[in-house]
Every structure is written in C-alpha cells, then in structure tokens.
Specification:
With 156 residues, the protein is mainly alpha-helical. It is built from seven helices and two strands. A two-stranded antiparallel sheet has the order 1-2.
Length: 156
C-alpha cells in the first residue's frame, strides 16, 4: 500500500513539474509603438503639418502633472484640432487607441519617453495605475476637448 502511495505521489509530482502557470508579461512598448510609427514615423520625426514629432515637447509635457494627463488622454481619447509642437502648427487627427489597456498605454508612453525622445527633461515612467486614473477622469472628453488641453499642458 505504501509503495502504491509513493508511486502515485511521484506521478503527481512529475505531472506538476510539467505544468506552468500563465505568466502575465509586461506589454512591449516598442511593439505597440509600431502602430504609432505609421504616422509619427519609426524615429518619432512625424510628418510636417499633419503628425507632430515626438521630441523634446513630449518630455517637457511628461515632466508636469497636466502634461502627463494630456499625453495619456491623447492615447486613450484621441486628439484633434489645431495644436503647435515645437512652435509649428499641426492640424491632423489622432484617433483614440481604445483597444489598448492601461498597462499597454503606459508601456507605449514609456517607450516614447525613453527610446524615441532622448532630449529634454529627465523622463519619469508612467505607471499602469496612473493611466487608469487619467482614463477614468477623462472618460467624458472628446478628441477635440483633448486638443484644447494641449497649450495648458505645456505644449509649445
């Protein structure tokens, strides 16, 4: 009887060793940015007059609470209306990236802040919880409303 119990225990142990629990991998900001690159380009240079560059202006905004709110809202709610970036006007429209969850929004913003934008103030990474709070607080905003926040968020 004891031998049978040991055999069953050994078999169960072998089965358990083969099992793996699902691991929640952090979203890949670079992979997510691939969809952004269609307009902002792979290097973040943008398209003059239509899609703004993701340069120093991004880092300046990411250094203030209002700017961080604006950047997260641009991704979650979209943006439209005339804005100035680097002193140049842009009149394009960016649709909301509604399929991205909060962790993915944080990941893509962090990718832009560390890999695409290399100049400007030091970059503080976005957290998933921060994005969740901004998303919830901006749920009633339209893309036009977000565009109106640009200048007060530190946009140039």
């Amino acid at each position: 009887m004891r031998r049978a119990a040991l055999a069953v225990a050994a078999s169960a142990g072998a089965v358990l060793v083969g099992l793996t629990l699902p691991v929640h991998a952090a979203p890949d900001g670079a992979a997510i940015y691939a969809r952004c690159a269609a307009c902002h380009t792979k290097t973040g240079a943008g398209v003059p007059g239509v899609f703004p560059p993701l340069g120093e202006d991004f880092r300046v905004m990411a250094s203030s609470e209002a700017g961080r709110r604006y950047l997260a809202l641009v991704v979650t709610r979209g943006v439209s209306g005339p804005i100035k970036v680097g002193g140049k006007p842009f009149a394009g429209v960016m649709p909301a990236q509604a399929t991205l969850d909060d962790a993915s929004v944080a990941a893509v913003l962090n990718h832009v802040g560390t890999e695409i934008t290399k100049t400007g103030p030091a970059f503080k990474p976005f957290a998933e919880a921060e994005v969740a709070g901004i998303r919830a607080g901006g749920a009633a905003l339209s893309a036009q409303d977000v565009g109106k926040l640009h200048a007060s968020a530190g946009g140039q």
